[in-house]
Amino acid sequence: MRKFNAIIFFALIILVLGIILAITGNAATISKPSPILTLKPEKNFTPSVSATLITSKTIQVKGTHTIQPSLKITTRGQVTRPATISLAPVVKVRHMDSIMSGIYNQYPHLNYSFANYILSNPGKSQALVTVESEIIGYSEKSVNTITLAPGGKVQFNDTPLLVLSKIPNETTTASFHYKVSGPDGRVIDEKTIPVEIYPKDTMVWAIYDGNEYVDQSAFIAAWITPHISAIEKILRDAAELNPDHSIEGYQCDYCVDDHDWEGYTNGQVKAIYDALAKDYKIAYVDSSIAFGRNEDDIQRVHLPEESLASNSINCIDGTVLFASALEAAGLDPAIVLTPDHAFVGWWISPDSDSMDFLETTMIGEAPFSDALDEGSAEYDDEQSNGNFETNASLFLDIYELREMGIRPME
Question: Is the pLDDT of residue 199 over 80?
Answer without folding.
Answer: yes
